[in-house]
Amino acid sequence: MGADRFDEISTHWSALRRAPREALEHVYRVYRGAIVSYFAGRVARGDFPALRGQDAEDLVQDFFIRLAKTGWVSRPDPAKGRFRPFFIGKIQYYLRERAAAARESAAIRRPSIPLEDPGGPPSPDPLEGRLEAEWREATVRDCLSRIRRRNAGWHLVLDRDLERDGATDREIAVRLGWTEDRFKATLKRARVVFRVAYRSAERRLDRLDEDVSEGSAA
């Protein structure tokens, strides 16, 4: 998974009907790190005591394999709401299912797991907050990668802007061998492009029926 040919795949709900496997591979490529971190965090916290934190990578692999085999992404339903919360719900249900299977195989008597997903915890979960932040960071990285293929200069100034650590525009321009005016003008344009690309990436995963284009800021 994660070949370059999947870079431009749209993953909003309507696109999942057309290319479910490719859409799933796109989600895996871009958000795998955030998902692995979430798996490991939930297991390490003891939410699923029958599972082991060191198995997070294998669990994520199995999770995506199951989604592909069951054809879940070929049956998208925008009525269920935004893609990401629904996807996280699938993750939580999968972990409960795997934990129940592990307890059963170890002959540990525990209350049965309900067949229907009862939903998330009633109070805010810090691990979900971390997943949200890591998911957003993955989206930023994906957007920067797309922008780099369009215009290396935009990518360069955005990268320096994100890593500026208190440096002024003039200081960054000097490091690049640019004039301050050139840096400011390029950064202003690049930020506009980035905002459009980021909104597009977010909306791909939501319940939009219309096509989402990044070309409006070209």
Structure, briefly:
The protein is mainly alpha-helical and 218 residues long. The chain is 63% helix and 0% strand.
Helix content: 55-70%
User: Which runs of at least 5 residues are low in confidence (pLDDT < 50)?
Assistant: 1-16, 112-116, 207-218
Distance between the termini: 29 Å
Mean pLDDT: 77
Radius of gyration: 21 Å
Strand percent estimate = under 5%
Written overview of the protein:
This protein is an all-alpha fold and 218 residues long. It has 2 domains: 4-126; 130-217, Orthogonal Bundle (Arc Repressor Mutant, subunit A). The chain is built from 8 helices and no strands. It has helices spanning 13-18, 20-44, 56-70, 83-105, 126-150, 152-162, 169-176, 180-204. Helix 2 packs antiparallel against helix 3, helix 5 (126-150) packs across helix 8 (180-204) and helix 7 (169-176) packs across helix 8 (180-204). It is elongated. The two termini are 29 Å apart. Residues 1-16, 112-116 and 207-218 have low confidence and may be disordered.
